[in-house]
Amino acid sequence: MQWSDFVGHQQQYEWFRTALAGNRLATSFLFVGPEGVGKRTFARLLAKSLLCNATEPQQLSPCGVCEDCAQVDASTHPDLIQISKPAEKAYLPIELLIGEREKRMREGLCHDISMRPYGGRRKIAILDDADTLNVEGANCLLKTLEEPPLDSIIILVGAGLQRQLPTIRSRCQAIVFRPLDQPQLESLILRQGIAESEDVAREIAQQAEGSLTEARLLADEELKEFRGSLLNLLSQARLALAEISKHCGAMADAAGKDARLKRDRLKLIFRMAASLYRGVAYSFSALESQAAHTPSVGDPLLSRAVQEAMHNWKGGAAAAIACWQRCLTAIEQVDRNANQASLLEAWITDVAAHSQR
């Protein structure tokens, strides 16, 4: 992939190009933003631009055909270190940072980034799933962040600033990635074959909240049907707790044995619920300020669900915000590998209590 293929985040691109032109590029970055908006792809393109020996780094325009570019695309470049949390783990293992016990500080990211670059330019490390660094893992990384090796760059990728440990936030320059605009997301949906027509691409983009990951999931006909039934169940005057929990669990389990895909589905379920409670909260806010508010323009299904929930609601704006926040907390708990059945049961019980249903 080249920058010309990349969609969105032009402001971030220009910022890096300006920093490189002025020789003011930092060494430790924290890329944060929602899942599926392009953070990891941006990090890899940045690494490709800096490692390409056919062009100057200040141009931020890799040639795309040299050996360095080919190796970055294939994830085999010796000066590019990439680590992420294994699917079966709740936290990023410290062994990926400092090596196995018998090889402490003789392997792992902190060791590898300290070695001289093979290509003569710099070493670059991309640490994905930074949200899952625990205190022990963060402590292993601190010295490297505080005293980075010469000509090295470390990029941590995570979902949000508040989900990072304070010791990590204070030592990295944060680069925030916003959700993609709807036209940008529609373009990607069509380009990647997620939808075959502009109308379907528009419908998916309206629901996906700027996330390509979410768009891929929503293109699934089964999930589209599930969304309608979930919003209907959550908007009723009385919540059928056992039915909702069982319904959500079955949809997550339908992903099969792929743990990452199952977690993606579970997070999507909570985001579907969050969109409903966000709409209810906005509607209450509009009523209190006597402002006109049409919830979820372009998403008739969600609009109807919000209106139905407002009709049946008993808790007020504060309750809607509490339910919204509980959904966001549940998403974080999925990333921590919380037990699915227990998580769903606790989530829907809390939502029922907050909304007094």
TrEMBL record:
Alphabetical list of InterPro entries matching this protein: DNA_Rep/Repair_Clamp_Loader, P-loop_NTPase
UniProt keyword annotations, A-Z: Nucleotidyltransferase, Transferase
Presence of keyword DNA repair: no
UniProt-listed Enzyme Commission number(s): 2.7.7.7
Transmembrane feature ranges: none
GO biological process: DNA-templated DNA replication
Catalytic class of the enzyme: transferase
GO molecular function, one term: DNA-directed DNA polymerase activity
Origin superkingdom: Bacteria
Name used for this protein in its record: DNA polymerase III subunit tau
Gene: dnaX_1
